[in-house]
Amino acid sequence: MSETAPEERIDGRRQRTQVTRANIVNAAIVLQNEGNMRPSMQQIAERAGVSLRTAFQHFPEKGQLRQAILDELTLQHRVDPPPAEIAMHSALDARMKRFLEIRTKQLEAMTPHRRAANSMIATSKPLQEHRVKVRQRFRNVAETWFAAELDALADASRKKWLIAIATLVDWEMWQSLRTYPARSINESRDLLALLLAAALTQMEDEAKGRSKR
Questions:
Q1: What is the pTM of this model?
Q2: Is 1 inside any structural domain?
C-alpha cells in the first residue's frame, strides 16, 4: 500500500482547516440572520457542528471572528458594473431599475448584520474603520453605475452628488423606509426609486445648466 505523500497530507489538513473555518463563519452569519444578534461561541460551534474547543482554536478572540464575518459579508455583497447595454445615459431608467433590484436585495440581506454591528460600533474601532471602508467601496459602485450622469457635472459638484447618491441608497435610508411605520420591500423600493429619480433629475438639470454657460 502506497503511503500518502507529506505534501498531500499537508494540503488535506489545510483544506479541512479552511472548511472548518468557513463553517464557523457561516454558522455565525446564519444565527444572525435568524435574529440572534450576538450568538455565543457555544451556539456558533453547535450550529457549525464542531466542538467549542475547535471554534476557539480557529478564533481565539471574538474580534477575529467578527472580522471574518465582515470579510465574508463583503464578498457576498459585491456588485458588478452595469451591463454595457444599459450603461449609457439613454438607458438610465433600465439601469436604475436593475441597480435598485440588486441594491435592495443586498440591503434587506444585510439588515440583521448591520443591526448587530450597530449595537457594538460605538465602542469598536475595527467596526468603525470597516464601516468607512464599506461606504467608500459602495461609493465606487455608485460611481460606476451612474458614471454617465456624474461625468456631465463639474468636478466639485460631481463629488457632492456622488456622496449624496451613495448615502441615499445606504442601509440607514433603507431602514428608515422599511420601519416605523412598517412598509413592504416593494413599497420601500418604490419610494427609494422615487427619491433616486428626483436626485438624478436634479443632477441632469444642473448638468444642462452648466452646458449652456
A1: 0.84
A2: no
